[in-house]
Amino acid sequence: MNIRLNPILKKDLRVTSRTMKFSWGIFIFEAFLGIIFLFAMAIIYDDNLGYTGIYKEMVALFPIIGGTELGIVALIMPIMTATAITQEREKQTFDILLTTVMTPMAIIRGKVLSAVARVMMFIIASIPLMAISFTVGGIGWSALFIYLISTAVFAFYVGSLGILCSTLSHKSIASIIIAYAFYGVIFGGTYMPMLIVALFMNSVTFVFSALLLMLNPITNFTVFFSAVLAGDDLNDLLAGASNQLGLPFTNAWVWFAVANLVMLGMGVFFQKLAARRIEPVKRKFKK
Amino acid sequence: MIYIDNLTKVYGKYLAVNKLNLHVPKGDLFGFVGPNGAGKTTTIRMLCGLLKPTYGLITISGHDIVYSPDQYKKSIGYVPDFFGVYDNLKVKEYMEFYGSIYGIDDRTVAKMTGDLLELVNLKNLEEQYVDTLSRGMKQRLCVARALLHNPELLIMDEPSSGLDPRARVEMKEVLLNLNSMGKTIIISSHILSDIAEMCNSVGIMNRGCLVTAGRMKDILSIGVDKHHLIINVKSNMDEAISHVKELPEVSINSVMENEIVINCGGSDEEVNKIIMSLMQAGVLIGGFRKEEQNLETLFMQLTSQVPGTVQAPNGMQPGPMAGPMNPGMQPGPMAGPMNPGMQPGPAFGPGNASAQPEPLPELDFLKEKKSFEAESSEAESNTEGGENI
Fold it and tell me: What domains lie within chain B, and their CATH numbers?
């Protein structure tokens, strides 16, 4: 079976893998994670004298390494995607792309997927480090699998937002600044309604502001890591909160699954907006 | 092949292209010329689907960019004035990339790449990185890329800009070769000598208007009823000037130190008469020559004329419904480009060299847009039925 890859994805992967920049990127990424890992191990050893205690605490490596990785992804995605279209414009290759049969949506999708693929190469390269917390910490492999999937969804979500920002300006620097501003809204701004309603407690608006947090990857991954570490304890906590505040989800995994779908949907929405922005002549269908 | 009907582009209050009508038949090598800011690039970009017209219609082989963008884009190959490249990509990979966009498999692309690179004189460069090629080579590679999906029409915006003389000659050879193979080509260029040598039809734009368009030989016949006769006067210049002023149907164009330029009909008989009468008047003539009409002189003449004074090529019937003013070309479905029967555009007249592009008093014609679109869709349905093409 001949699977037809998006031409931009194929070309970008080929070009990227050839550059020294990419090799250095992986090296720096792994080295940084390694330092964080060793630092976390040192703290665990200091706190626990007995071997049993050390093994138990090894579980904490998972959110530490995972969280660090997600933080790095959040930082590099705007640079990768917010410059994707502006660089094509600056190199004057964009006009040629637009005159081909490739639809604006396919161009945007290709750009996002190539960024996601590159990020996932970084993430996958770090699995051996992660594995230590699994083998000695007692975390199931399914958690790692879910983590990888949801990291890809997260990269897709922030990458799509980045590409939308790339279509809002003709200059790469401006696009990156706009992207970080939007990220600020998503990572920090989505907490604001929650803080406001906390002052004027109202259960209906509380539900709305809580659901708004599904757009916030920090919340979603906090739920995920908590669910992995705390297990049923977290679900009991969520069930209690749901009964009291009227939240629709009583299970952390359900929350996380729905949040991933929301992020996926928002990613597609951002891509559609970006495609509309770059389409010079809007297509119409004959009645 | 290409029908451009009432094409207009307005940027804010600036009218960049004003009601342009044009028909380019299949197999033509059409040259678009005009001074800077004439609207050539805007027209080319609208033709490629990179800019949305404010109103007007473009169809290529019956396909319209709005309703059938896929077929429209398959019909064109675009070569921009500046060719940007991707870093770290080899020539064959560059071709593979564009081939995959058009759904051509790698094996077919590899075969086509060899043929196309040979066509544009870049044979054996498949393994070279694109960013290491010279500008002329990149430009020819861009032509090869544009031909990969075998488009009916090649659109080139200033293909020779920034090229050295050798690269320009090579590019010209490539284009003539392609045209001889039946490709329809539209080129916008400032280099009039190249256009005159290569193209079999030409359109001259000025201040957003198509001043004239048609077969090259017909276009060059515009204004041939007035030729320049340049006479080298060895002595008695004052006598020569006063004598010429007395001659019927002759006027003085300009006088230099030893030369006098006369506007006359240009027939050999008339020239003989003028020379003989000057000699009889005691003027010592060192020599004389007739200045031939070429694209450059015509371009200078047309791009500095007052609207409505441009002549149609011989045999053309000016009129509001005439096509590009040329007997060899098919009339367009609507009004032709500027001719004596045409009304100037609403904002500023075509070819009025002294007039600055004024702000539109009120974009009244935009109000016509809705009714025009209704007409266009009606015309389009007729076009599909093969009535107009």
Answer: 2-61+153-221+299-384 (3.40.50.300), 74-151 (no CATH), 229-292 (3.30.70)
